[in-house]
Design goal:
With 490 residues, the chain is α/β, with parallel strands linked by helices. 37% of the residues lie in helices and 13% in strands. Helix 9 crosses helix 12 and helix 13 runs parallel beside helix 14.
Length: 490
């Protein structure tokens, strides 16, 4: 049991999170077009492959495997999966709408009705169990045509395409859905612009001017999404989504302290500052100068800036998996991996099977810092442990290591709430096993529901409840008061 003084709000939004490109499958069914995720090969070298100068988004099934094409076939199993979420007690379910399922190319004037009908069914299935949908509008899955023919988000034309997509989604589902997120982990483009911006070396991904222009275009598109939603129904809440990696100076050397301050500004805060505060932060000129750029190098209009100011987001959502350290003086060369970005190894932290640092205290720090900075509600919409699960002879999966990770991070959220941070919900990532975004593997499992599928796409797709399923069920039923697992009967 957690500290008696730690009480989650009665309306706290417990649930889980997924993304269309990692679990849906049905990549060529019912009029869906290809997305950028469909062109990403599976395996640990997927980003190495896409960073080659000759990578042109060609899908070559004779050379690579494409696990996103099948996902876990949620397209045909959504009723079964949502029923399992309901059994766990979900209050909310965060999922994304595949843009290319609604607009197959991305530039059409009329949407694909079959795609809209699929999400009608998914949303209605959630509501049948009193699960509130939380919809991500763009989760690493822009239509492939927009990357290949239009050059990704560096092209301002994508603003109007996205605006049309959002308008269709809000008008179709806005009377049934209260929470929307605009761009998933928008700041991840600082490391991998392929995912959020559709930029690779062959279409300008190595040019930071393109990355910053793409961000600006997304900031404008995000504000347009807020306007569309609020015009439709002022009670709809729209949030930004930031990949947050708490950052520490490696030691007390002032050089490292300054470098850490700037790392936080440049990575953790920049995109949030624009979307939440509605204006570019004071350190923008310093950030641009790192890459030999000024604001004059970007296409930013007075109308853009007025829109950003008038339509900031209503809340802040984050993914949090790990923290990093900053060291600039050369006293260590030890590094670790992370969520689309790595960093200096922190000697005080353990790491996961995939070399990500495990740091629940970092989540408390993140929530305290973000709420102090923005004074807007915070939603932890991703957090979890990728691990290798073993199916025992009796068919069970004893994933105490996952329970330990989730327990410690839920405790950190409770402590942040005690600190005064307004945290409204928690949806751990990959509540059901799915294809990993960073490595394109099934063997890197996050879920509390096991899916019988291997890295080669072989398996029965049978769903099984892990030990963590029953643990999280009790966490939700007690509103976070009971986090231990010693009394579970599994």
């Amino acid at each position: 049991m957690i500290n008696e003084e730690t009480i989650f709000p009665k309306d706290f939004l417990w649930g889980g999170a997924t993304a269309a490109n990692q679990l849906e499958g049905g990549y060529n069914e019912d009029g869906r077009g290809l997305s950028i995720a469909d062109a990403l090969p599976g395996g640990k070298k997927r980003f190495e492959i896409t960073q080659a100068d000759d990578f042109d988004w060609t899908i070559d099934a004779s050379k690579y495997k494409y696990p996103n094409h099948l996902g876990i076939d949620h397209y045909h199993h959504y009723k079964e999966d949502i029923a399992l979420f309901a059994e766990m007690g979900f209050k909310v379910y965060r999922f994304s709408i595949s843009w290319s399922r609604i607009f197959p190319r991305g530039d059409e004037k009329e949407p694909n009705e079959k795609g809209l009908k699929f999400y009608d069914k998914v949303i209605d299935e959630c509501l049948k169990y009193n699960i509130k949908p939380v919809i991500t509008l763009s989760h690493y899955e822009m239509p492939l045509v927009l990357a290949k023919e239009y050059g990704g988000w560096k092209n301002r034309q994508l603003i109007s395409f996205f605006e049309r997509f959002v308008k269709v989604v809000i008008e179709r589902f806005g009377h049934k859905v209260h929470y929307f997120l605009t761009f998933n982990e928008i700041n991840s483009a600082s490391q991998h612009p392929i995912m959020g911006q559709g930029l690779v070396p062959s279409n300008g991904g190595n040019n930071k001017q393109n990355v910053f222009q793409a961000w600006h275009n997304q900031f404008v598109a995000s504000s347009k999404a807020v306007k569309i939603a609020h015009d439709f129904d002022p009670s709809i809440e729209v949030g930004c989504m930031i990949l947050y990696a708490t950052s520490y100076a490696y030691n007390s050397d002032p050089k490292n302290q300054l470098a850490n301050l700037q790392n936080n500004q440049d990575f953790n805060y920049f995109c949030g500052d624009v979307q939440v505060r509605g204006q570019y932060p004071a350190y923008t000129d310093r950030l641009l100068s790192k890459y030999g750029l000024t604001k004059n190098d970007l296409d930013i209009t007075a109308e853009d800036l007025a829109l950003l100011k008038t339509y900031p987001v209503d809340f802040v959502s984050i993914s949090y998996y790990m923290s990093t350290a900053v060291e600039t003086t050369g006293i260590t060369d030890q590094t670790v991996a992370g969520n689309l970005m790595g960093g200096v190894k922190n000697p005080f932290l353990e790491v996961s099977d995939w070399d990500w640092q495990i740091d629940p205290t970092g989540l408390r720090i993140a929530l305290d810092e973000l709420y102090d900075r923005y004074q807007k509600p915070i939603f932890v919409v991703e957090n979890g442990l990728g691990a290798k699960d073993k199916v025992e002879a009796n068919g069970k999966i004893y994933d105490e290591y996952r329970i330990d990770y989730l327990r410690s991070h839920i405790k950190a959220i409770g402590e942040a709430i005690n600190d005064g941070a307004k945290v409204i919900g928690y949806t751990p990532w990959g509540c059901i096993d799915l294809v990993s975004a960073s490595t394109g593997e099934m063997s890197k499992r996050y879920g509390m529901i096991y899916v019988d599928l291997d890295d080669n796409g072989k398996g029965t797709l049978r769903r099984s409840k892990k030990e963590s399923f029953y643990w999280y069920q009790r966490v939700i039923s007690t509103n976070g008061r009971y986090l231990e697992s010693s009394n579970l009967k599994y």
